[in-house]
Amino acid sequence: MPRRSPDWRLRAVKSATKPPEDALERALYSLLKTKETDNEPVAYAAEIYTRESEREIMQAWLLAGATDGQIQENLSVPQDATQAYRELFFDVTAFRDRLDMLSWVGDYHKVHGGTPYGARLLQTAMTRGVDTLRWLFGPNNADVDPNLVLQNAMSDAYYRGKSNRDYALSSKEAGMAHNFMNTAVKIATQLSKEKPPDANALVIKLRYRDMTESVEGVADKADLMH
User: Fold this and answer.
1) What is d(CA 206, CA 199) in angstroms, rounded to the nearest whole number?
2) Contacts of 150 (CB under 8 A, 6+ apart)
3) Helix, strand, coil percentages for the chain (3-state, nearest 5)
4) Where are the domains of the chain?
């Protein structure tokens, strides 16, 4: 399958010798040729694209898989403008797989002419997702669930620890891995103490014990725990 750039439709419109049949492409064609268009979402999207900092932020949200509604909620960009942007300027469906997407992000600064800041932002979008972008750019970035913080810290420490396990036991990297794993275990222990038992898991455990009432009865009572 041939690889395409996410701005392939913009390139096609730029090289067109006559107005395209597609309505969005025709509106962009008019904007490029005459600097005017009666399609407000296309004009809005084009303005975002021409501003480098705005373009890189929008690309990050789209790469992270944000919905049009999430972008409107956090960046105040109208949904029809985001839809036009997706179609004309940054079509994430052009990537044939996630590996292709990661490769494009890796080449962003040196090959595609993006800024170092934009490259880091895209990497953050790919590895941290919409929640981190909401914290960086959203209006309500202080609302963080403490349990989510613990879970993310545990996961990060756990996988950092596993990534250095192949080093020699006496190496600095092995010592760091040991510290990360200890941190992950401590957080996991804390979470297991604070998180209430899952009712369904409790029913499964009780299924294999002598009981004076049916599992269905236990399940009904388990609902009262929440």
Assistant:
1) 11
2) 187, 190, 191
3) 70, 0, 30
4) 8-137, 144-195, 198-226
101 touches 95 (CB < 8 A) = yes
The whole-model pTM stands at 0.73
Distance, CA of 77 to CA of 54 (rounded, Å): 11
Closest CA to 81 of 27, 130, 162, 160: 27
* pLDDT < 50 stretches in the chain: 202, 210-226
Longest Cα–Cα distance of the chain, Å, equals 82
- Scan for tokens 């419109």, then name that residue: 13
Cβ–Cβ under 8 Å, residues 114 and 49: no
Over residues 114-161, the pLDDT tens digits come to 999 999 999 999 998 998 999 899 887 656 778 878 888 888 888 888
For residue 14, count other CB atoms closer than 10 A to its CB. 12
Q: Which residues contact 106 (CB under 8 A, 6 or more apart)?
A: none
- Phi-psi sector, 129: left (phi>0), alpha (psi -120 to 50), beta: left
Q: Which residue has the tokens 């510290």?
A: 179
Contact of 55 with 91, CB cutoff 8 Å = no
Placement of tokens 């797989």 in the chain:
97
Q: Which two tokens stand for residue 51?
A: 């501003």
